[in-house]
Amino acid sequence: MAAENVRWGILATGGIAAAFTADLVDLPDAEVVAVASRTEASAKAFAERFGIERAYGDWDALAHDEDIDVVYVATPHSAHRVAAGLCLEAGRNVLVEKAFTLNAREADELVALARGRGSFLMEAMWMYCNPMIRRLKALVDDGAIGEVRTVQADFGLAGPFPPAHRLRDPEQGGGSLLDLGVYPVSFAQLLLGEPSDVVARAVLSDEGVDLQTGALLSWESGALASVHCSIVGGLATSASVTGSLGRIDVPDGFFFPDRFVLHRDGRDPQEFTADPADGPRNSLKHEAREVMRALRAGETESPLVPIDGTLAVMRTLDAIRERIGVRYPDEA
């Protein structure tokens, strides 16, 4: 792809679609050319809000719009397989919101579609594109804290969410794990790879989704990760990585940090802070820039958010759900 603007299509019109589009329209080399929803009214309202030229009342029309270079799929994750698959089959490149799919089987199917067609595919794990997270990973990879021994991370919302809310709805892949727990699991696997064993416990709702889940992941190296998620308690969204020579603490918002602290034996703590030039800590522009960089480079996968890593996370989420007894209607 040449250096001209990358033309985006937005599939879905919910909150995350709006947040991503708001950041996207601020990028000088990005152009949002179309949006689709299940209803034409919703698509038109979204298009008017962001100055988008075309609004479609069905997904298929967007998927077959030849003027689109890449589609951002922002539906609930229960629809990711269908929506992203439709776009890939039509020859579009695709960025899929997290969690990538409901399960590893669906993830494998999407990856096979993309690789079979030579199309770009990436999970919208914006945490991996965040400059501070990239800096933290580089420190760990360079041995700043020695061999990683433990990882801790949590993400919870206080709620309460009514039974009709998507986070409580099994039909939409509800529960804390796929929506929130994907972040601590992805954080641990960014640093340690896929675990060799998983232990998990959860409190389930009357609808059969997890209200809160705790998991202990282990690796053959001896490393352990403790991850927690909740939709009934506002957890600290903190994280820490402990190694044989020190520790890194992310005190708040570990998936989009503005600072973290490196502790090493015999040295004063060293604080790392975000560069103001990188923009607000909740910016989704880093993720969008990575997609556009990869497309211009002719890459079909991002080295920052590798497909094999996404598949490994989905296998871990499957393992956790198996142990806590959560199955969704389409999996029965």
What is the fold's blueprint, element by element?
Blueprint: E1 6-11, H1 15-24, E2 30-36, H2 40-50, E3 54-56, H3 59-63, E4 70-73, H4 80-89, E5 93-97, H5 104-117, E6 121-124, H6 126-129, H7 131-141, E7 148-156, H8 176-192, E8 197-204, E9 210-218, E10 224-230, E11 239-243, E12 246-250, E13 259-264, E14 270-273, H9 285-296, H10 307-324
Parallel strand pairs: 1-2, 1-4, 2-3, 4-5, 5-6, 7-10
Antiparallel strand pairs: 7-11, 8-9, 9-10, 11-12, 12-13, 13-14
Helix pairs in contact: 4-5, 5-10, 8-10
List its salient traits.
332 residues; alpha/beta; eight-stranded mixed sheet; 10 helices; 25% strand
How would you portray this structure in words?
With 332 residues, the chain is an alpha/beta fold. The protein contains ten helices and 14 strands. It has helices at residues 15-24, 40-50, 59-63, 80-89, 104-117, 126-129, 131-141, 176-192, 285-296, 307-324, and strands at residues 6-11, 30-36, 54-56, 70-73, 93-97, 121-124, 148-156, 197-204, 210-218, 224-230, 239-243, 246-250, 259-264, 270-273. The strands form two sheets. The chain has an eight-stranded mixed β-sheet with strand order 8-9-10-7-11-12-13-14, with helices on one face. α4 (80-89) runs parallel beside α5 (104-117), α5 (104-117) runs antiparallel to α10 (307-324) and α8 (176-192) packs across α10 (307-324). The termini are far apart. The model has no long low-confidence stretch (mean pLDDT 96).
